[in-house]
Amino acid sequence: MKNKTLFSVLITLCFILVTPLLSQAQDETVSAEAIPFPNGAREIPALTVPNTVITFDGLPTGPTSVQAINNAFPESTLTKITIEPVAGTDIWDSFNPQGKALSPNPDGSGGLYLVDPDQVFGNSRSYTFYLDKPTNEFGLKIGDQNANFLFEFYLGDSLVAFITIGNTDNLQTRFFQTRKPFNRVEMSTGPIAGWVLPELHLATGNPSRPIPTLSEWGLIAMAGILGLVGFIAIRKRYTTA
Q1: Most buried among 5, 90, 147, 186, using CB within 10 Å?
Q2: For position 46, which CATH number holds?
Q3: Which residues form the domain of 61?
Q4: Residue at 149 is within a domain
Q5: Could you tell me the sign of the dihedral formed by the alpha carbons of 84, 90, 95, 98, in that order?
Q6: How big is the CA angle at 138 (ends 212 and 211), to the nearest 5 degrees?
Q7: Bigger pLDDT: 92 or 205?
């Protein structure tokens, strides 16, 4: 009778411990599914991780390089920027231009170039930004163009997310967050290709890493094992008594 009573008590304790864990697991699943990450990426109001904002007013107008940008902004995580140029030039004069902006060289070479407002820059179809470490967030300001842009996020050669945005007038800064980390961003648009980048927002520091913990099912299993071990120990004690 005593063994049955102790067993009932242990079962009841295990049930009390496991029920909240099951409820928490269900709530967290619902919460995770409620966060929209269509195609693995979404826009956010601002970066949520430590970051550096790259502006170009302190650099000289004309041809430039990633090395020159990184020298001016030591926290920059850029390793390379490539531009796919297209024929033609434009003038940095739309949507209230402010300050220098990154653009293609107007000579059509696709080299990096810093342009002042009301000055000529080269047209492009895409920019690709290479980062020195994986991150989940990225931001920039698009100038002189109101169009749809496709952003693709890669980890190495693997595409991990993509998102299309529009309404890029009025020098809006756009921020992106992905479900999986990336270390390369490619942005592209259609045949209308006169656009510049007055700002870059780069996440700094190491990527976030989850602290090793037991999952909900791990806690449930642990509770069951502890209950079983306790039952066996008590039963053995009363058997040998």
Answers
A1: 90
A2: 2.60.120
A3: 38-203
A4: yes
A5: positive
A6: 5
A7: 92
77 located within any domain: yes
3-class secondary structure per residue, the chain: CHHHHHHHHHHHHHHHHHHHHHHHHHHHHHHHHHCCCHHHEEEECCCCCCEEEEECCCCCCEECCHHHHHHHCCCCCEEEEEEEEEEEEEECCCCCCCCCEEEECCCCCCCEEEECCCCEEEEEEEEEEEEEEEEEEEEEEEECCCCCEEEEEEECCEEEEEEEECCCCCCCEEEEEEEEEEEEEEEECCCCCCCEEEEEEEECCCCCCCCCCCCHHHHHHHHHHHHHHHHHHHHHHHHHC
Nearest to 218 by CA among 18, 50, 66, 82: 18
Q: CA-to-CA distance for 104 and 122, rounded, in angstroms?
A: 5
Number of domains in the chain: 1
pLDDT per residue over 27-68, tens digit each? 443 344 456 788 999 999 999 999 999 999 999 999 999 999
Biggest alpha carbon distance in the chain?
95
Residues 189, 90: contact at Cβ < 8 Å? no
- The verdict on residue 22 lying in a domain is no
Query: By C-alpha distance, which of 159, 146, 212, 210 is closest to 186?
Result: 159
18 part of a folded domain: no
